[in-house]
Amino acid sequence: MSLDYSKYLNSKIVNVPKSGIRKFFDVASTIPGAISLGVGEPDFITPYHIRNEAIVSLVQGKTQYTSNSGNESLRKEIAYYMHSRFGAKYDPKTEIIVTIGASEAIDLALRVLVENGEDVLVPEPSYVSYSPNVVFAGGNPVPIVTDADNGFKLTAEQLEKAITPNTRAIIMPYPNNPTGAILSKKELEEIAKVIIKHDIIVISDEIYAELNYSDEPHIAVAAIDGMWERTITINGFSKAFAMTGWRIGYVCAPEPFLSQMLKIHQYTIMCASTQSQIAAEKALKTGRENNYEDVRLMKESYNQRRRIMVHGFKQIGFECFEPMGAFYIFPSIKKLGISSDEFCTELLKAKKVACVPGTAFGASGEGYIRCSYATSEEKLIKALELIGEFVNAL
Amino acid sequence: MVDLQHELIRILRKDCRVPLEQLAIMTGKDVNEVAEALQQLEDDKIILRYVPIINWDKTDRSFVEAMIEVKVTPQREQGFDALASRLYHFNEVKGLYLMSGEYDLLLMVEAADLKSLALFVSEKLSTFDTVISTSTSFVLKRYKSEGVIFEQVETDDRLVVSP
């Protein structure tokens, strides 16, 4: 290598560490026959009627660009869905962009909000992309550590303490990956008071909104009094409609935010894949027509597996906060006296069960492991048995 | 109770060997409550039997399976039920349905061989006065039954670990 590449590279990017997930993937993928509890996507495949809609659109030759913000008919469906399911009202003409998954939406939101090292609060443990995206956008990620004793919920008190004059925004990651924590309407209202008082903006990642196992259905942050005008809501089709590989999501926000996001989107992306948009529209239309029966049955199945996991980890003797959202469980391994990384590496070697070290989701994840239950009941039960054997042999 | 029963049915339709304790864990209910709900389903004859789905092609059992469409003259005051109740008692008849459309009854029939099946049609089924005509189609291959695809290899194409 003759060039000193480092001198050409953006140090901001170079200094962001490699994803802990990626590191663990590299190890896990070399072990054949492993049972994986490390998968962050549904084990359901996209329902046939949705897949077929995309196939038909290809046969009909619908292979052109769509408008930058996405097909208007899809945006209308999204507007209806967001309002009827989660209580947040958006104008499909000016307040919704269809994006390449929720990931692009997170990036867009951060890029229009920060530029010169403004702080963005990130409750942790949380999804791996938030903090790196804040850095890429020119901001400064500030973790707020949530803990198991409080169900990994962000509290109004914690938020009050974390806000400084340099705080521009907070990412609200509920229902949460990796902990499975959710926030109730009442808890959100308490947090909202602090947000409004300090005049900061919320980026609310609600990709797991449909997977809420509590008696109280998910409510959008934007549906809380006084929050709509200061909230950028992110959602997508990956989790609710098992459409991860389609890379299709959306962002909803007041027009002054959205019009700026649209500039980035139109200059970098042009538009989300036409076939994915057509499939996504079918998903929402069918949901509207059958009262989201597919989503309900999928959630019921996840809920059954969630209970298997909670019960299983209790049997093993792990302290485990009961997750009420998403499809992850985040048990504590602290009593074993080994690091999360070591636990997961050794478990994989000894028993061929892959979990993700909690540290992949921020330093505060030390002492925890993330187990996804988006896997068949048989595999979950087998994995729990193997984890039990592994722990007993330590 | 009804919601629990529906949920239990959905679980058992996928795997009817899930033990009672696991059914209780999965539904978040007490074992006794689940046992009671199951008992009720059985008492009400909603769950009639717990049976396996068998891929006979992988066994050494040799038999013929056919679908017989039957046109029938309905009987006064009894419609098709009287004939149906005679037919479903034959061992050969594994399934019997009243249909809309071109014909009236659909029989799923199993017999040891072609000759036995022919005898069933000519000497049993056709002898009923109310049977107008029959049309027999043989099953050549079973791809899917009771929601189970027979030759599907289960694969998980997802990345082993993802965010």
Question: What characteristics describe this protein?
Answer:
heterodimer, A: 394 residues, alpha/beta, Aspartate Aminotransferase, domain 1, Aspartate Aminotransferase, domain 2, 2 domains, 3-stranded antiparallel beta sheet, B: 163 residues, alpha+beta, Arc Repressor Mutant, subunit A, Alpha-Beta Plaits, 5 helices
CATH superfamily of the largest domain in chain A: Type I PLP-dependent aspartate aminotransferase-like (Major domain)
Q: For this structure, what is the CATH class of the largest domain in chain A?
A: Alpha Beta
Note the overall shape of chain B: extended
Helix content of chain B: 25-40%
Which chains share the greatest interface?
A-B, 30 and 17 residues
Which sequence of SSEs, written as H and E, runs from N to C of chain B?
Answer: HHHEHEEHEEE
Largest sheet of chain B, order of strands side by side?
Answer: 2-3-1-4
Given the helix and strand composition of chain B, which structural class is it? alpha+beta
What's the CATH architecture of the largest domain in chain A?
Answer: 3-Layer(aba) Sandwich
Give the strand tally of chain A: 12
Order of helices and strands of chain A, N to C? HHEHHEHEHEHEHEEEHHHEHEEEH
Give start-end ranges of low-pLDDT stretches of chain B. Answer: none
Rounded to the nearest angstrom, the distance between the terminal CA atoms of chain B is 38 Å
Question: How many domains comprise the coordinates of chain B?
Answer: 2
Shape of chain A: globular
**What does the radius of gyration of chain B come to?**
21 Å
Terminal Cα span of chain A: 46 Å
Level-2 CATH architecture of the largest domain in chain B: 2-Layer Sandwich
Return the CATH class of the largest domain in chain B. Alpha Beta
Helical run tally of chain A:
13
Alpha carbon gyration radius of chain A? 21 Å
